[in-house]
Amino acid sequence: MALRDILLNLPEVTKPEQRLSFSTKLKWTLIVLIAFFVLANIPLYGLAKNALEKFEYLAIIFGTDFGSIISLGIGPIVMASIILQLLVGSKILNIDMTTKEGRQYFEGLQKLLTFFFVLFEALVYVLMGGLQAMPGKTVIVIVQLCIGGLLIVLMDEVTTKWGFGSGVSLFIAAGVGWRLFTAAFSFIGPEHQIQPVGKVFVLFSAVAAGDTILAARALASIIATVAIFLLIVWMQSIKAEVPLSFERVRGYSIRWPLAFFYTSNIPVILTAALFANMQLFARFSENAAAACIGNVTTCGMASRFASKMTWLGSFDAQGTPRAGLVYWLNSPNLVDALITKSFTAQMLAQSLFHILFFVAFSVLFAVFWVRTSGMDASSQAKQILSSGLQIPGFRRDSRVLEAVLARYIMPLTIMGGAAIGMLAAVTNLLGVLTSGTALLLAIMITYKLYEDIAQQHAYDMYPALRRFIEK
Length: 471
Known about the structure:
Largest sheet: 3 strands, antiparallel
Number of domains: 2
């Protein structure tokens, strides 16, 4: 009972007491977005020289910039969500998500677990060599990481309650958008000299120099990015519509749309975060194993434990997986390999494992998310009935409505989860301008944000529409 009281009384950002206008939500969203970019450019004090480019994939998925005060990014939030989804979905943790108290308990437990992962990941990053601190500055670096992690949690809450969407989605979209722009149009090289680095400039310079291979590689990346963008936008529009009618207003009916991607981008966010964490722990394990060679007696307990996890994989000097589980789950650039004639059968095997991993876990997380977030047939049936709606030709009974909705919701959950997992994996294999998974997430987040704004704030954006409807 004491734990429940603690969870229900954790510090939180208060919810607005009334419906927020479009301008208010926009203001708070922009404030959080500006704060995010400012924090991403504040380097950690006391950080030694690190090969931070090796964490580029993790930085994209976690919506952060490694080496900054917010190096943890959304990692703690996502990890807490993954663990709770697994525990609740498998009934190991029995929480009734249909009640207000149950949802509050779940949210409190998730926040407490997030605080734990902020501290845990800060310790892991520093003590296992991911972010090496200068001598005597270890505690200072850990404290800074914890502060940055808590700020991300706070900004996520502010965005969720006072802005558009959620902070998790906003940070991913912002980070990917910036990286996509620089990947296409950057003209500053690694040594800060002016040179064509972005694929658009590389394409023009390669054509001018007559380098057909380089031009083909740049053009393939651009075409793949545009094609994936159009495909995702089209797939976002696929919906199944359930006819509903108002009980008290006869002759008037509406259609309730159920998106093909019923759980939106949540499954692929959790799957990508799981894969990113596997890479992270594989890298820490490799560093710990190297530190413990010939020094077992003085090697710390955490390092000795991590050194036993080398089966997760190892990396080359460029940070690319070269062995172990993360190698087989990694995504090779198939289009680039075909253009440069470096394609091998091993790449094909890697691709198959990568696709299977993303499809399987996307379906798993999609099912768990539906069952724990109030999107299941039972919860939706109660919500529809409470709104005074019913399915024409059926009795006004929650059990009947639940049975009808179950024909749509679970098949859409499984098919949508499998489709988005397949789409994310294939996008990774095509060699788009940025990480394929990240590009998929950014497009879906932006599209979903646009839909939400259009539905919730149509009157605010178009005052003439209000006058027309109210006449």
